[in-house]
Each structure stands twice: as C-alpha cells, then as structure tokens.
Design a protein that fits this description.
This protein is an alpha/beta fold. The protein contains 15 helices and 23 strands. The strands form six sheets. A seven-stranded mixed beta sheet has the order 15-16-17-14-13-19-20, sandwiched between helices. Strands 10-9-8-11-12-22 form a six-stranded mixed beta sheet, with helices on both faces. Strands 1-5-4 form a three-stranded mixed beta sheet, with helices on one face. The chain is globular and about 85 Å long. The termini are far apart. The mean pLDDT is 95.
C-alpha cells in the first residue's frame, strides 16, 4: 500500500451475531497482494459449522428486523451510506490494494457503494402495494413479506460495491443476511463490521462468513434455513448453485458471465465509439462482467478503427494500483493471471495480435498484462466465444445489419451489448434483435439503478435493480376480503 494508506489487518475474521469470530476449526487462508503475489494477511476459512452459526444468528434477528417499519429501515440504510462515505478513502485504499484496481477507479466504486444504500432506502419507502376491486363483492390486496435469511455470494471484482449492491435491497426488504465474500478479495469486506456498527444495524442482521466457494459457499447454498440466494460470478459456478437450489426449491438470482458485443457502424461518432471501447474493455483491469470484449466493426471503418484501437491499447498506462496515473493495474490473482495469459497464447493461434498481450518491461513481478487487441477474429475462436475477464479484446468485421446481429448473438452469453450509430431507427432495431439483458445505444455503460440488471442465455437468471430487487427479497401474499355478506354456493344442503 502507499505510505499514506492505512495498513490492512493481519487476520480477517468472520462477523457473526455482531461479533468477530475465528473459524470454528481455526483454519485460515492466505490473502495475497496482486502487485507482488506475496501474502499480506490471513482470512478465516469457514466451513459448515461457521455457516450454521451465521444462519442461526440471522434467523434469530429476522423477526425484529422484518417487523421494523419501512421508513425506519430506510433511515438505517442512509446511516450505512453515511458510514461508507465517512470511510471513503480507507475503503478505496483497501479495495485497490486487495484487488489490483487502480486507486482512481476504486474511489468511484466506494462512492457507488454508498449510492446503492441511498437508492434502496428511497425504493422501499416509495414502493406501494397493489389492490384490486371486484365490483361491489370483493377487495383483493397484495402485501410483501420479507422472504427470510438471504444468502449473498459476491465476486472478487469491485467487491465492496457489489456487496453493497446485494446488501442494500436485502436489508431494505426486511431480510437478514449471510454474506460470503470472494476468498481472493476479503479485505474491503473486513470494514463492514465497523460500518454496520456505526450505522446502528442490530446484531445478527448482517453476518459475514469467509472461505472458499466450494466449501463455505456450498454450505450456504445447501443450508435449509436460507430460502433464497443471490450470486454474482461465473456461469459454471452459477449452474452448480442452481442445481443445488433446485433440490431445496430455493429462489435464486444469478448474474453470471458475459461476452458483450460492441457494434460499431461506419457512420458512428468514431471518437466517442473508440473512447467507449477502450474504457469498456480495459477499465477495472478488464475484469468487468459488462465489458465490451467483442468489437464488431462495419467493414468500411474496420481497418482504421482497429489500427487506432491498437494504438490506444498500447498507450494505456499499466502500473501499481496505488499510483493515481495508473489506468490498468495487476489482475486480481496469480491463478487468474495465468488463465488470461493462456487465452492470449490461444488467441495468437486463432487471430492476429495487434497490441499488447505481454508483461510490461517495467513491472517484473505481479499479475500485470499490457491490454491486448486481437484483429480478424473468427466467430469460432475461443477468444471470441469465451469469457476471458481481463484486458483482452477481439475485433471482427461485418458487412450489414443482419451479419452484425448474427455475430452479436453467436456466443452462449447475453448480458450486455452496445451499439454505435447516429441512425436511431437502426440502433433500436439492433437493440431489439440482440439477445441480451441490457443494451446501450451511443452510451458507455451509464447505469440507472432503477432499471433491471441481468442477462439472457448463459449470462444469468432473474433481474435485480430498483423494485425488482425488492420483489426478489420478498414473498407476495394476496389477501381477499368480501365487501358484503358472503353468499358462497351451497352444497349438501338439500333442496
């Protein structure tokens, strides 16, 4: 960390029932710094006993939290946002150090985490309930009840913000929570106990259990006292979780992988489209679920756009995450770094590498990679089809709208898509024809928290965002009331 940044804790513990706790069996995992791959802390390695203890604490806290009025829950969420903002610099420093995210981008993630809580405080106070009148005979109305203990499993990219994205609606809806952060990036999660305590969140309402996905995460998925799961991560893991949830008939929300296309027509604003592609593919170290990692360029513009994209990629500043000038930092973990490098090696055999793809000479250690651009990428190439989750982009030409849509839909994924053209009729046609949960036209992933977030095909199941998140964390109950004297049909009464 930089000299001015606070030192991280040497041990990161669970948070159960309002108290820190070691793993029941005392086990730990090493946590490494992605800029050097040296261990800097140990984190508790939770198992089924730790998850059971956390679920028990959440279940004990549930009746009182579920009965708390909406406006009071909203006040608590605003206090959480205040506490996050008060720790803004420390959160950003921890996030950057732990994940390799450039400090300039980590500061934005800390702000966004606070915004999530303020947004859902507004959603829960503004959200009404439905009523239906059936003439003069009957009135039916619908109430939302908190679903119970929510299991939240979060990924290692932008970890604190994504934890807030799940915590905020779950708490707003009246659920209590067991959160399982990613084992590679537990550092910023270690600040939640301080934040929650400062905000006056009752003990047991939020519980945090660290550990691996295969052990701790699976124990949370399998626990019978957890009726719903929200997961963000890989498609392969999402499939395993869904199979487990099916056995228990649990509700599940899955935000999974992406291989999002950017469709650039020849009449596009070239500067804006180029800026958007570079930002979307390489910011957050390319470790972004909605990254535009497949760039489809109409043939009259293809050579120029590809050449300029390669030039921009070569000039992206790769460096230590604590340096304010850094635009791409180290990838999160040595294992992931090796995986991305393997895709670069494969891409060299499948297509033409026109920029990057190697370790910058001035960074001899750590998980660094100069952003890579592959050109003339065929649709069956692995770098076209598979999610790489790093600063690697595939560029492919197309001739007309039909081919653009065909290429855009030619992968198993369908999370996001981007279209660049001043012809808005064409933009809308493409947006409607692409199989994805979200589409941006002449925009670079600017999100409104009120809109649904989620994907199609292998990119997920369900939608979260705004009122849809509250729908997920609650159970709807219909109540039917007769308005006059009831006159049901009479059976068995004789003539």
């Amino acid at each position: 960390m930089s000299p001015a940044a606070p030192l991280p804790p040497s041990v990161i513990r669970h948070w159960i029932g309002g108290e820190t706790a070691d793993a029941a069996d005392g086990r730990t995992l090493d946590v490494t710094d992605p800029a050097s791959n040296r261990p800097y802390a140990k984190v508790a390695r939770g198992g089924p006993a730790d998850v059971a203890r956390a679920v028990d604490a959440a279940r004990a806290a549930f009746p009182a939290w579920a009965a708390t009025a909406h406006h009071e829950r909203a006040r608590v969420l605003h206090r959480i946002a205040d506490a996050v903002e008060d720790r803004h610099n420390r959160l950003a420093a921890h996030e950057s150090y732990d994940s390799g995210l450039p400090i300039s981008q980590a500061r934005g993630q800390a702000r966004r985490a606070a915004e999530n809580f303020r947004h859902f405080a507004g959603v829960i106070t503004a959200l009404g309930e439905e009523a239906f009148r059936q003439g003069e005979e009957q009135l039916s109305y619908v109430v939302r009840n908190p679903a119970g203990v929510a299991g939240l499993i979060t990924p290692w990219n932008t970890p604190f913000m994504l934890q807030g994205w799940k915590l905020a609606p779950a708490l707003a809806a009246g659920c209590t929570v067991v959160l399982k952060p990613a084992e590679w990036t537990p550092l910023s999660a270690s600040l939640w106990p301080e934040v929650l305590t400062a905000a006056g969140v009752p003990a047991g309402v939020v519980n945090i259990v660290h550990g691996t996905g295969t052990e701790t995460g699976q124990a949370l998925v399998d626990h019978p006292g957890v009726p719903l799961l929200s997961f963000t991560g890989s498609t392969a893991t999402g499939r395993r979780i869904l199979r487990s949830c099916a056995g228990h008939l649990k509700s599940a929300s899955m935000e999974l992988g992406g291989k999002s296309p950017v469709v650039v027509f020849a009449d596009a604003d070239r500067e804006a489209a180029l800026d958007a592609v570079v930002f979307g593919a390489f910011s957050l170290n390319g470790e972004r679920c909605t990254a535009g990692s497949r760039v489809l360029v109409q043939r009259p513009l293809y050579e120029e756009f590809t050449r300029r994209l390669a030039g921009r990629a070569a000039r992206v500043r790769v460096g230590p995450p604590s340096d304010p000038a850094t635009e791409v930092g180290p990838l999160v973990h040595a294992e992931h770094h090796r995986r991305v490098l393997e895709y670069v090696r494969t891409g060299r055999e499948e297509a033409r590498l026109v920029a990057g793809g190697g370790r910058p000479a001035h960074l001899p250690e750590g998980n660094y990679l100069q952003p890579a651009v592959f050109a003339d990428v065929p649709r069956d190439a692995r770098v076209f089809q598979e999610e790489i989750f790093g600063p690697v982009v595939a560029v492919t030409p197309f001739d007309d709208e039909d081919e653009a849509v065909d290429l855009a839909n030619a992968t198993p994924y369908g999370l996001a898509a981007y279209v660049w053209t001043p012809d808005l009729r064409r933009g809308h046609r493409i947006a409607h024809a692409v199989d994805s949960g979200m589409v941006w036209i002449n925009s670079h992933n600017v999100r409104d928290l009120r809109t649904p977030f989620g994907g199609a095909k292998a990119s997920g199941v369900g939608r979260e965002g705004g009122a849809r998140s509250i729908d997920f964390y609650t159970e709807s109950k219909a109540v039917h009331v007769a308005l006059g004297a009831a006159r049901p049909p009479r059976l068995g009464g004789g003539t």
